From TrEMBL:
One of its GO terms (cellular component) is extracellular space. Pfam families: Fibrinogen_C. This is Fibrinogen C-terminal domain-containing protein. It comes from Paralvinella palmiformis. SMART domains: FBG. It comes from the Eukaryota. Transmembrane segments: none annotated. Residues 1-148 form the Fibrinogen C-terminal domain.
Length: 148
């Protein structure tokens, strides 16, 4: 499957066009379990604010826990721009990816693919399966937006 990313600048323009947007995250685990999380509010801030993420209004029908709640109101980090909330750790360096890293609690869908059962920081990870405390490591992840 091809990796597609429209880029933060395009996401910023799209989610600030006067309409409100929803975000859906789909995952397939290494065990073949399909899960999703739905958020009824999504907005990406301007570059001058490091593409700050606004993600809210988690839909309770979701089958993944509300793991992005830890990333709401967080600025985007890269290896060159450490915007996470940890003073001694650079999450973008650890995960080898750009993302809205918070304070160690995270859903990271932009990391490298690592075959199961290797569990490291690399390999798409999204919090936990709804109603459990079990982390989900994904072999497939997709984030989709649409206007409400």
């Amino acid at each position: 499957m091809e990796n597609l990313f429209s880029g933060n600048e395009n996401m910023q323009r799209t989610t600030n066009d006067g309409r409100t947007y929803s975000l859906r995250v789909d995952l397939i685990s290494y065990l073949g379990e399909e899960r999703f999380a739905l958020y009824n509010t999504l907005r990406i801030g301007p570059e001058s604010d490091s593409y700050r993420l606004t993600v809210a209004r988690y839909n309770e029908t979701s089958t993944l826990d509300n793991s992005l709640k830890f990333h709401n109101d967080i600025r985007f980090s890269t290896k060159r721009r450490d915007n996470d909330k940890l003073a001694t750790t650079d999450c973008a360096e650890i995960f080898a990816a750009g993302w809205w890293f918070s304070n160690g609690k995270c859903a990271v869908l932009t990391t490298s693919y690592v075959p199961y059962p290797v569990i490291t920081y690399n390999g798409g990870m999204y919090g936990s399966v709804h109603g459990t405390n079990k982390q989900t490591f994904a072999k497939f992840a997709r984030m989709m937006i649409r206007p409400n």
